[in-house]
Write a structure and sequence with these properties.
The protein is mainly β. 9% of the residues lie in helices and 34% in strands. It is built from 2 helices and 28 strands. A 4-stranded antiparallel sheet has the order 1-28-27-26, with no helix packed on it. α1 runs antiparallel to α2. It is globular and about 50 Å long. The N terminus and C terminus are likely disordered.
């Protein structure tokens, strides 16, 4: 057989194997668990907040879920939080406020991190309407209360606890807790907002963070995240201020990154697409996206006007090294009021050692259902779409994707994705809410065989469809080799 014929035959066989590999790699994300409240009721909005972390020491990420409007006993909208096992989805414990009252909104926010240094993740829970608001930290070992945190500047309706984040800010080996009071008045500015950081060792205040651009209704701390951006082994703090006016644009929004060492300002982040009412900073998340060992910062602008679509939303990823823009993320399904970027989470889902970005679009129209919502996961390597997540229980106004979190639930080395549908109807209860945990599909790292386009989002995820697509790609590539000694293609990148 001539050398050319051998090459074509070998390439044909290789492409056939490649097609089979694509079928395996292109499997849609598998549903691991559906999480439901242990106290079924209408209007509880279970899934409004989510966090993932190992609380019981089995090396599998467990899932904390807020239900901030659940009625508890007599008090209406007192709120609850729940922690579910990552091993099997069973309920580990239910968390209730130590200060019962109606309208406390316990569960407004949740975060997980090892506060007491016992090697197991503890759970921070915000209760944004308990008087001026409060936050609590509970042991992951047994659910007991470790700390109750109050604002150092008491004032009514400050919404202290609206958002929380956990990470070791002072380098003592114990995770500290950042708590935002978005409606706190500062220097005569109504609802300017503040962020406070409390020691994980004893719950004492470490420092308070203020916007470098003082103004009313900035809502500093609407979102917070913690991670080391400057490589000093101390976690830094990102805080969004989606209500800030910028250069004459009302509520364009900003985000800031503050040093965990001393609270000084490291970066001011502005939207690359200036416009009024974008709400840039409504969501923030942190993780090492580009593999330089420094945490990068994802920022959402859920109300941004994009391509003529009001409220479509956008998300951006900035370098933790210098604050420069790494890439812009857009919804693959352009439409008005999608609220793409309304929630964010960062974690490595495809095993390439670069953190990927989960983006919620809780306002998305899906299959004719208004505000059903969606979530998307994008590669941290290049910003390309990895896959799309839809609720397993399609319905209008579910707002699936209102909350997202990433963590390794099944201990396979890749991050799995939790998403909340906080307004889903369940068992006849209007807006009871649900949460779901999806296993990341077996995608190869960048530079290998990438996934096929997201067939599942168009309603066809059958093996036959994937096989046909794979086979078609293989045939096309064989044809491309005719008259050439070799062909090289980088798939989908």
């Amino acid at each position: 057989m001539h050398t050319y014929a051998r090459l074509v035959l070998l390439l044909t066989l290789a492409l056939a194997a490649l097609a089979a590999g694509i079928v395996a790699f292109a499997a849609p994300p598998a549903l691991l668990f559906t999480l439901n409240t242990a106290n079924p009721q209408a209007g509880g909005q279970f899934g409004n907040s989510l966090a993932v972390g190992d609380v019981n020491g089995d090396s599998k990420g467990d899932i904390a879920v807020g239900a901030y409007q659940e009625d508890v006993g007599g008090p209406l909208d007192q709120g609850r939080a729940y922690v579910f096992s990552g091993a099997n989805g069973s309920l580990l414990f239910t968390l209730d406020t130590p200060n019962p009252r109606p309208g406390g909104y316990f569960g407004s926010s949740v975060a997980v991190g090892d506060v007491n240094g016992d090697g197991e993740g503890d759970i921070a829970v915000g209760a944004s309407q308990e008087d001026q608001g409060r936050a609590y930290v509970f042991s992951g070992a047994n659910g007991s209360l470790l700390f109750a945190l109050d604002t150092p500047n008491p004032q009514t309706n400050a919404c202290f606890g609206f958002s929380v984040a956990v990470g070791d800010v002072n380098g003592d080996g114990k995770a500290d807790t950042a708590v935002a009071a978005i409606d706190e008045d500062v220097g005569g500015n109504a609802d300017q907002g503040r962020v406070y950081v409390f020691s994980g060792a004893d719950g004492s205040i470490l420092f308070a963070l203020d916007t470098p651009n003082p103004q009313g209704w900035a809502w500093l701390g609407f979102s917070v995240a913690v991670g080391d951006v400057n490589g000093d082994a101390k976690a830094d703090i990102a805080a969004g201020a989606p209500g800030e006016d910028v250069s004459g644009n009302a509520s364009q929004g900003r985000a800031y990154v503050f040093s965990g060492a001393d609270g000084s300002l490291l970066f001011t982040l502005d939207t690359p697409n200036p416009q009024a009412y974008a709400s840039f900073g409504l969501s923030v998340a942190m993780g090492d996206v580009n593999g330089d060992t420094k945490r990068d910062i994802a920022v959402g602008a859920h109300a941004a006007l994009v391509g003529g679509n009001a409220g479509q939303g956008q998300a951006y990823v900035f370098s933790g090294a210098d604050g420069s823009l790494l890439f812009t993320l857009d919804t693959p399904n352009p439409q008005t009021n999608a609220s793409f970027g309304g929630s964010l989470a960062v974690g490595d889902v495809n095993g390439d050692a670069k953190r990927d970005i989960a983006v919620g679009a809780h306002g998305a129209l899906v299959g004719g259902n208004a505000y059903q919502g969606r979530a998307y996961v994008f590669s941290g390597a290049d910003g390309s779409l990895l896959f799309t997540l839809d609720t397993p229980n399609p319905q209008a106004y579910a707002e699936f994707g209102m909350s997202v979190a990433v963590g390794d639930v099944n201990n396979d080395g890749n991050g799995d994705i939790a998403a909340g549908g906080w307004r889903e109807d369940e068992g006849g209860n209007d807006m009871q809410g649900r949460a779901y945990v999806f296993s990341s599909p077996p995608l190869p790292p960048v530079g290998g065989v990438a996934e096929l386009p997201d067939v599942a989002q168009s309603g066809d995820s059958s093996a036959a469809t994937y096989a046909a697509l794979a086979g078609g790609l293989a045939a096309a590539l064989v044809a491309l080799t005719a008259g050439a000694w070799y062909a090289r293609r980088r798939w989908g990148r």
